[in-house]
Design goal:
Blueprint (H helix, E strand, L loop, with lengths): L1 E7 L8 H9 L2 E5 L9 H8 L3 E5 L1 H6 L1 H7 L4 E6 L6 H12 L4 E4 L4 H9 L10 E3 L10 H11 L4 E5 L1 E2 L2 E2 L2 H15 L9 E6 L7 E6 H7 L6 E5 L5 H10 L5
Parallel strand pairs: 1-4, 1-5, 2-3, 2-4, 6-7
Antiparallel strand pairs: 7-12, 8-9, 10-11, 10-12
Amino acid sequence: MLNIMGLGLRGIKSLTVEELEILQKSDIVYFETYTSVSPEATFDSLKIVCKGTLAEANREFIETGTEILREAKNKNVTLLVTGDALSATTHNEIRLEAEKLGIKVNVFENASIITAFTSKTGLFNYRFGNIVSMPFVYENFFPVSVYDKIYLNYSNNMHTLLLLDLANGKTMPVYQALLTLEGMEEKRKRGMISDNTKVIVGIGIASENEKIINSCIGNIIKTKPEGSPASIIIPASLNDKEMEFLNVFSSVEL
């Protein structure tokens, strides 16, 4: 049996009663550390909750998925994912392979940054276009396709949620992502991104240190707000109600 379980955004505090029962009954729990970031003490807290074996699952482990599937053939195995259970394509790939092998799969949903951050800003969720991911860039890797995807949303008057790549258990620094966007603007020259462009930054959403910053790119690059996990919204035009919500639910203090 394979349980694919969303942990939510608050570590073990987000576990539902049903999820807690499943974890305690699991022979093996794999805590996925590849696609998202949980509060720092989450793994240690899980040691108290889980009765069976507890292990971290990194990128290589998740992308191959072979050991999870092998164990799930004869044991009660749980793959524990920060956020929602199936937001990442990788988890649906594991689910698909399990189904092909005749392994029973149970899915347990939970809160995700994809809806939690956007909702907390007050922006209307139905006005968001495709989600875009910002990878780390290098001398020989500068994918301006990221800019093109944002521009497609922007040209259709749709907001963009920009998810930031992970390294060493933390998301890319916000200022670095915005500098990269400005570099992409220099290449594309479509007038979408500048120091004066307003963006919304979410840091530590659902944590005690949550910040929602509504400011221009130049100010954010200058002040370099810290914290992880972080993500960015690049808004299209805001209607009156969105503007009212955002002004109350966010801060411009940096």
